[in-house]
Automatic annotation (TrEMBL):
Region (Disordered): 72-211, 289-324
Extent of Low complexity compositional bias: 122-141, 303-324
GO molecular function term, any single one: mRNA binding
GO biological process, one term: mRNA splicing, via spliceosome
The protein, known as: RRM domain-containing protein
Cited Gene3D superfamilies: 3.30.70.330
PANTHER family associated with the record: POLYNUCLEOTIDE ADENYLYLTRANSFERASE DOMAIN_RNA RECOGNITION MOTIF PROTEIN-RELATED (PTHR13952:SF21), U1 SMALL NUCLEAR RIBONUCLEOPROTEIN 70 KD (PTHR13952)
InterPro entries attached to this UniProt entry: Nucleotide-bd_a/b_plait_sf, RBD_domain_sf, RRM_dom, U1_U11-U12_snRNP_70-35kDa
Feature: compositional bias, Basic and acidic residues: 176-204
Entries under PROSITE patterns matching the protein: RRM (PS50102)
Keyword field: Nucleus, RNA-binding
Length: 324
């Protein structure tokens, strides 16, 4: 029994083999259906195998230009290719929508002597072969020219002679190049020593003990104005202002001042804070020193800076009055 295939082109990409077989079954007996794909996607054409040649002709007459899934299909008798190449599309269907491009079989190429893929492949394919009159690269005028398509031998150019003293002569070992010595780095400039604080002259010291302020040293560096005030409140002390002295970077210097309303509250706080430990640091309170308002102005100007004065050492806003 002779079996015949028909070519079906311009297929919709959503058309599947069972659907195509069902359409052809209404005309003739279908033996097999094959839609050509690339991966899971249809290429828009295929082949339908029918039982007889008469069925194939009948299918061409009935199904050509019939609309399937919104596209008119092209149906024609499939032509056999030379042995081992399978069926081909019929003539006149190359431009049909959904039909693949026809490709010519590639000629075998010699990767070494012929054109190669990638960069330079096209240039090698389109290059004009050297004429026989051209002398080979070796410079031998009597050498026979290389046959067309053959790879030209690679020649190595002669090296330029070395300059005098550049390399070792025959029988001598090359000398190692002397290492270039680096210039010694200049010594770092020594920073100027800090100026020492001049000793305090007790005769010109016009400071007097304050009757309302305390100087508290050895404070934990983690204390802030608020936490310092809370310690005073928790100790049952009534104070007017309290602040921790800080540096320019707002870090604590480790001491602070507390101002009270009267001398009685000052003495009470002095007794309560003496020997008190905060974060494993024993506080060291003492009466703050302030400038004597009765001292002459000239003596005040000559007096050194008041280190323990709450007015001179305050560097942060104080906590206002807290009442226990």
């Amino acid at each position: 029994m002779v079996r015949t295939k028909v070519f079906v082109g311009n297929l919709s990409f959503k058309t599947r083999e069972p659907e195509l077989s069902q359409h052809f079954e209404s005309v003739a007996k279908v033996v097999g259906v094959n839609i050509i794909t690339r991966g899971p996607r249809s290429l828009g054409y295929g082949f339908v195998e029918l039982e007889t040649e008469e069925d194939a002709k009948k299918a061409v007459a009935a199904m050509d230009k019939k609309e399937i899934d919104g596209r008119p299909i092209n149906v024609d008798i499939a032509k056999a290719r030379p042995e081992g190449q399978g069926e081909t599309k019929p003539a006149g269907t190359e431009g049909a929508e959904g039909s693949p491009r026809t490709t010519q079989p590639r000629a075998p190429s010699n990767r070494r002597g012929g054109a190669t893929r990638g960069r330079g492949g096209a240039k090698a394919a389109n290059a004009t072969p050297a004429s026989p009159s051209t002398a080979p690269a070796s410079g031998d005028a009597n050498a026979s020219p290389a046959p067309e398509g053959a790879k030209r031998p690679r020649t190595r150019k002669p090296r330029a002679p070395k300059k005098e003293g550049e390399g070792a002569t025959e029988g001598q070992t090359p000398e190692a190049k002397p290492k270039r010595e680096r210039a010694p780095r200049p010594p770092k400039a020594e920073s100027a020593p800090k100026a020492e604080r001049p000793p305090r002259d007790p005769q010109n010291d016009t400071r007097i003990p304050s009757e309302t302020s305390l100087f508290v040293a050895n404070l934990p560096f983690s204390l802030t104005n608020e936490s310092f005030g809370k310690i005073l409140t928790d100790s049952g002390l009534k104070y007017k202002k309290a602040h921790v002295v800080v540096k320019r970077n707002q870090k604590s210097k480790g001491f602070g001042f507390v101002e009270f309303d009267n001398q009685e509250e000052q003495k009470k706080a002095l007794d309560a804070l003496t020997g008190k430990k905060i974060e494993d640091r024993e506080l060291a309170p003492k009466v703050a020193l302030v400038s004597d308002p009765k001292a002459p102005a000239e003596t005040k100007a000559q007096s050194p800076a008041v280190a323990a004065s709450p007015a001179a050492a305050a560097a942060s806003p104080a906590v206002e009055t807290k009442t226990a």
